[in-house]
Fold these 2 entries.
Entry 1:
Amino acid sequence: MAQFPILRLTRAGQDLVGMSQGGGKLIFVRAELGDGQLGEAESVEMLHALKHRVMQLPLQGYLNEGNGKARLRFVVDNSALTSGFFNREVGIVAKIEGGEEKLYAYTNAGNYADYIPSKDTPIDSEIIDLHIVIGNATHVTIETQNGAYATRIEFDDHRTAPELDHPEKSVHKKHLHQDAYESPALTGTPTAPTAGRGTNNGQIASTAFVAQAIAALVNSAPGALDTLQELAAALGNDANFAATVTNALAGKVSKSGDTITGALKFDENENTEMSIFPAHYYHRLFDGSTTYVHAYDTLPPPRKKTMYEIRVADGEGGFIGHLFTPEGLHSNLKGKADYAGNADHLGGQSLQWIVDQINAAKTGIVAGNLEQNGWVKFANGLIVQ
């Protein structure tokens, strides 16, 4: 097994540490292996590169160990090695972000090196951890390459790490419990994509989605009816408003015709005095002591005062009027004066027949009247002066 001394910083490495402490970002680029011999008069601090580089290996991981030290990890295998060599040299190449790559640290095993055969003799991959000095540098990272891969050790370290410090800061909370994912307590101003109008699924509703949904619900409603409270007040806070209106309408008389089962009552006021007769007539049902049951075709109607007038259609497009006053009936009487329910009937004869009988009887009493000489002649021939 090879025996390497502690890694030592080169002069270039010391300069990089100084620049990183001044705010520069220190980036570890790769590890290099070689078989070069370091002369007795040569100093590690003055080296700018390996004496004879054979392999370049991507870095697998970086860990700040504190106290100005860090651990770099890489993996050695011979899958691409064409010729075997004695691995005496190990170097770490680094740079300041935006600067040139430089040999940061170096060590040489001398005669205590291990032999790494070519790819014709496959070997198991070997994980190498190097502990190097970084001083007080706070902005330190590694440059990963496509050839880098995670080892089993790194998976275990990641699984049990007290804090998952991802570079993009996506996860950094210590050992999140399952409940933290099911009911996270969000702080700050978390954002989410705004769902399209009418979306109805499990997507998170942003404030913008809620605002557009409310705007669509209100839809330019008048200011006095654009809140649920105002709508409730307009409906009389009646949760069964539709049923209430339906029941109320069911108790109304239809203008197209209906059956009235109760009594109709009219108050003596201007509203109820108006017509229940055809619309082309003007009517008043009440006027002081007079009740009209006739529809007048003039406006205003004639005042009859304590009179009743009944008009009956004559069957020829006109009507016959019958007027009642305190003095009696004013009408052209026709028909019979009696009816079956009247005990004081007139023998079933018409009034005209009675008048005719009276006129005929008069001729039997007085035959003539001689007014100039005062003579009266009776029907039997007697003359009286």
Entry 2:
Amino acid sequence: MALHFCSLSVKILTLFVIILLFLPRAVTAIPELELESMLAAVRTRGYNLFCNAITTSDIYYEVLAGTSFTFFAPTDASLFALDMIATSSDYITTLRFHVVPRRFSLSDLRTLPPGSSLHTLVPLHDISIERLPSLGFDIITANGINVVVPGLFYGRDIAVHGLGGILSFRSQIGQRQDSPPPPSEANFSGNHSSVVGDSHAPPPENSSSFDRFAQRQDSPPPPSEANFSAWSG
């Protein structure tokens, strides 16, 4: 009887283990401590505005709900300049364009095939990664912007690389930065029309004044000819 009970217990235990093995594993979110550690470390390296923007936007909570991420941190100067010309929605979209929903270390970036692109938090907008040979080491670029501080931070689920500028995506704000629309050209012409006019194209009034002055010098009036005839006689 005891032997039969032990055999039954073993079977039940085996069945329980099998069930546990086939249960779907819960997705482990990024610990908030790791995200806070990343923000603190990146701030100490001079990328303050990027960290502040992440903390005050919904990107913070989106990262906590994810599994792994790579951040390409733009410089403070470039973010400050963007803040001067961009709307709040464009600004947040630009931040999201610097976040890749997968962890890539420097070695991972170097081993990517040529022409590889990484998906970002902005749908249909990827980051093109290139490796440029240099003296002694390879330079990694993201959409043509140099990765100047690779491995700025490494955590279990997060990697951060510092950029030498900022990534611009093909949208309304990208057009303002790269190819100004016609209204901007009109404003530029309007602001500098007086300078251009004085330097290269004198106004009609000046031209007519010059013509009258030339006429007085080159073709003397009839009274002068009369005086000359009287003197000759």
